[in-house]
């Protein structure tokens, strides 16, 4: 057990830091999803890597011995909306980093039309204008479950909760 105040890195940096093609791909994804920096992208890639590693380990074991663990992994990925209902362990290996990024609160708020851009969605979240269910969430990287997706809206004390707020004008016109 480590020191509780010490932060632990949750991501792995690329093995070859100066590859032009990879840098361009990362830059495009960072812009498309409104990420603050590449560290957030590396977090998502590391999360996906953990899912794939667990799926590979489960595929290598006898099916009877790991049936519960397989169902737990698939259930977790179905709950957050990364996989469909009829998916198998082989489908986990075909996932892409964009599948994980689509489940971030920032992206879901933008896709629901609560914000005009992904950057504006990030600003609304960090300023405390967005709620998930009954509680305010200020973390743009919050992973939204499928069941929570319909409960996303503006916090009741937020000025954006008013229908006539100027930043919501694009919502009614579109």
Terminal residue distance: 52 Å
Helices, by number, come to 8
Query: Which secondary-structure class do the elements indicate?
Result: mainly alpha
In percent terms, what proportion of residues is strand?
A: under 5%
- List the helices and strands in order: HHHHHHHEEEH
The tally of structural domains comes to 2
Helix content: 40-55%
Radius of gyration over C-alpha positions, nearest whole angstrom: 19 Å
Average pLDDT for all residues:
93
Biggest sheet descriptor: 3 strands, antiparallel
Care to count the β-strands?
A: 3
Assembly state of the chains shown: single chain
Shape descriptor: globular
Parts with pLDDT < 50 across at least 5 consecutive residues: none
Arrangement of strands in the largest sheet = 2-1-3
3D structure, described in words:
- The longest helix has 23 residues, at 38-60.
- This protein has two domains: 20-96, no CATH class; 105-173, RNA-binding S4 domain (Structural Genomics Hypothetical 15.5 Kd Protein In mrcA-pckA Intergenic Region, Chain A, Roll), CATH 3.10.290.10.
- The protein contains eight helices and three strands, in the order αααααααβββα.
- Helix content is 47%, strand content 5%.
- With 174 residues, the protein is mainly alpha-helical.
- A three-stranded antiparallel sheet has the order 2-1-3.
- Helix 6 (105-111) crosses helix 7.
């Amino acid at each position: 057990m480590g020191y509780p105040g010490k932060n632990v890195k949750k991501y792995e940096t690329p093995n070859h830091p100066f590859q032009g093609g990879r840098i361009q791909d990362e830059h495009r994804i960072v812009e498309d999803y409104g990420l603050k920096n590449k560290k957030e992208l590396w977090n998502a890639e590391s999360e996906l890597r953990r899912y794939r590693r667990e799926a590979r380990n489960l595929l290598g074991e006898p099916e009877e011995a790991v049936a519960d663990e397989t169902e737990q992994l698939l259930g977790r990925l179905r709950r957050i909306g990364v996989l469909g209902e009829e998916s198998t362990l082989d489908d986990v290996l075909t996932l892409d980093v964009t599948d994980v990024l689509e489940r971030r609160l920032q992206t879901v708020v933008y896709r629901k039309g609560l914000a005009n851009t992904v950057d504006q969605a990030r600003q609304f979240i960090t300023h405390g204008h967005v709620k998930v269910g009954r509680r305010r969430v200020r973390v743009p990287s919050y992973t939204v479950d499928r069941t929570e997706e319909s409960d996303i809206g503006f916090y009741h004390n937020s000025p954006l909760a008013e229908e006539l707020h100027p930043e919501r004008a694009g919502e009614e016109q579109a």
